[in-house]
Design brief:
This protein is an alpha/beta fold. 37% of the residues lie in helices and 20% in strands. The protein contains six helices and nine strands; from the N terminus they run H-H-E-E-E-E-E-H-E-H-E-H-E-E-H. The protein has a five-stranded mixed beta sheet with strand order 7-6-5-8-9. A two-stranded antiparallel ribbon has the order 1-2. A hairpin with a 5-residue loop joins strand 8 and strand 9 (185-190).
Length: 213
C-alpha cells in the first residue's frame, strides 16, 4: 500500500470512528445530551415509600410573583389565583383525597382557617371536582375551597409540582405555598417525604404576618 493510500485509509477510518462515537449513547456527545435532558426534566426530588421521585419542574420561589392559574371548582367553572387579589392565599397542594395524609391536611387547614383574617385556603389536587365537593360536604368543611387541577396546564407547568415519574406519576406533590395580598410568594414548603403532613404552623404564621409594603 502506497503512502497516499495509507493516509486516505487512516483518514476515512478516523472519520467513521468519530461519527459513531458522537452518535453513540456511550460517547461523550451522546451521553452528554442524554444526561442533560434527564437533568433538565427532573425538577425537585421527593420520597415515596423509600424511592426517589421527581417533579416536572422547579417550585416557585419566595419573593417572586405567583403565576396566575386556572383551576376547576365543583360546578366545573374555572377559578383563577387573580380572583383572590387583595387577599392572602394559602395553597394546600396534595396528591389525592383518598389518602389519609391528604384528607388530614384539608381538615387541619379548615379548622385553622377560621382564625385567619382576609385569607383564602385553596386545597388543590388532581381529584375530580365532584369527588372534592363530596368529600368537603361529607366532612362539613366550609372554610376551605377545593379546586381540581385535572385540566389545568398553567398550574402544573408554572408551579413545578406535578410528579414526573414513579407510581404516582401525573399526581401533584405535597406542598404549601403562601401568597400575600399583591400576589407575592411569601412562604413555600415542598414536603420531601410525601406521606408526611406539611408544617401547618409555619404556613399559618407566614399568612398571619405577611405584609406587602
Amino acid at each position: 500500500m502506497t503512502d497516499m493510500k495509507k493516509t486516505l485509509f487512516l483518514w476515512l477510518a478516523l472519520g467513521a470512528t468519530t461519527t459513531a462515537f458522537a452518535q453513540s449513547p456511550d460517547g461523550i456527545t451522546g451521553a452528554s445530551a442524554v444526561q442533560t435532558g434527564q437533568t433538565k426534566n427532573k425538577g425537585e426530588s421527593i420520597i415515596y415509600k423509600g424511592n426517589t421521585l421527581h417533579t416536572t419542574g422547579k417550585m416557585v420561589k419566595t419573593g417572586r410573583k405567583a403565576p396566575d392559574f386556572h383551576l376547576t371548582q365543583s360546578d366545573l367553572q374555572d377559578v383563577k389565583l387573580s380572583d383572590f387579589k387583595g387577599k392572602k392565599v394559602i395553597l394546600n397542594v396534595f396528591p389525592c383525597l383518598d389518602t389519609p395524609t391528604c384528607a388530614v391536611s384539608v381538615r387541619e387547614f379548615n379548622e385553622k382557617a377560621s382564625g385567619l383574617e382576609n385569607t383564602a385556603v385553596l386545597c388543590i389536587s388532581m381529584d375530580l371536582p365532584f369527588a372534592q365537593s363530596r368529600f368537603c360536604t361529607t366532612e362539613g368543611l366550609t372554610r376551605v375551597i377545593p379546586l381540581s387541577a385535572f385540566r389545568s396546564q398553567d398550574f402544573t407547568q408554572n408551579y413545578g409540582l406535578q410528579i414526573a415519574d414513579g407510581p404516582m406519576k401525573g399526581l401533584l406533590a405535597r406542598a404549601v405555598i403562601v401568597v400575600d395580598e399583591k400576589g407575592i410568594v411569601r412562604h413555600t414548603q415542598l414536603v420531601k417525604e410525601i406521606s408526611q403532613e406539611p408544617d401547618y404552623e409555619a404556613a399559618l404564621e407566614s399568612a398571619a404576618t405577611a405584609t406587602t409594603e
